Amino acid sequence: MKEKIVIYKTNHNDIELKVQFEEETVWLRQDQIAKLFGKERSVITRHISGIFKDKEVDKRSNVHFLHIAHSDRPVAFYSLDVILAVGYRTNSSRAIDFRKWVTRVLKDHLFKGYTINEKRLLQATNNLNDLQSAISFLQEKAKHTLLTGQEQQILSLLADYSKTLTLLEQYDKDKLSLSHKGRGTFILQYKTAYSVIGELKKVLFVKKEASSIFGQEYEDKFKAILGNIRQTFGGKELYPSLEEKAAHLLYFVIKDHSFVDGNKRIGSFLFIYFLDRNNYLYKQNREKKINDNALTALSLLIAISNPKEKDTMIKIITNLLRE
């Protein structure tokens, strides 16, 4: 019972409950039910006892005992069936507001056959728009001469991205959003990054794939980038998730031309290094979340993209990093 949702809010905004959601129903403790209806807990206890005594609701399937923080014994949680039954037995202004809300929802079901969840509908619409934008973006960029020979990889990128935005699956799970779940512990410091770039240069130089100016920084551009992906505003990180940090690292290194030579290779290598150090590079089946061919295509897409298309690129990358 880790997932939390807001299930009910009064018209007067004097109460808002975050409740447990599991097994296709919601669960509240007695103290939460008391808060919901503006009554003493003893009153709620009496109503619940009466509901079970009258066999209005089956006790065995509508009560769960769970351990919660700051409690040395399991606490009883009651299902929506119990909550509704208490609501119709309770006499208070809050209970009246609740009954009006329930009646309105039931009427929607009876006369319309459904109840519209406006938040989910808006999320689904936004996500569909994002998918359409990504499709248009990839279709347009696939025509660029720099991406000649990458057509198949562009199609694979589109297929992978579409999978992460499967509307029915996301709708059922109520997780329609830009992917920003990861929380990393490894921070890429300037000194460490430059050491990694130096090692990469040595390997490529031996293979005659890098010149003496490979990795030579333009002023302090790269140092500024590392600072940018960790910057805060009002005490909060501008890019709080691991996915966002990694995506912006790749984008900024390539797009801002931080180095005299090797921007795409350096950006791609640091992207992989950063994800790996944060144990976020691989799927559960040990395949890379973004394979080498896909990363090559992404690097080229960033290079030829318009700066105004940055948000689209970031959304594509972060969603490809999803499990």
Word description of this protein:
The protein has 323 residues and is an alpha+beta fold. 55% of the residues lie in helices and 9% in strands. It contains 14 helices and 7 strands. A 5-stranded antiparallel beta sheet has the order 1-2-3-5-4. Strands 6-7 form a two-stranded antiparallel sheet. The chain is elongated and about 85 Å long. The model is unreliable at 1-6 and 164-179 (pLDDT under 50).
- Counting helices, strands and paired strands, the structural category is alpha+beta
Q: Which parts are unreliable, with pLDDT below 50 for 5 consecutive residues or more?
A: 1-6, 164-179
Number of strands: 7
How do the SSEs run, as a string of H and E?
EEEHHHEEHHHHHHHEEHHHH
Order of strands in the sheet with most strands: 1-2-3-5-4
Strand content: 5-15%
Secondary structure layout plus pairing:
Layout: E1 4-9, E2 16-22, E3 25-28, H1 30-37, H2 41-53, H3 59-62, E4 63-66, E5 75-79, H4 80-89, H5 93-112, H6 118-141, H7 151-164, H8 167-173, H9 190-206, H10 221-228, E6 232-233, E7 236-237, H11 242-255, H12 263-277, H13 292-304, H14 310-320
Helix pairs in contact: 1-2, 2-4, 6-7, 6-14, 11-12, 11-14, 12-13
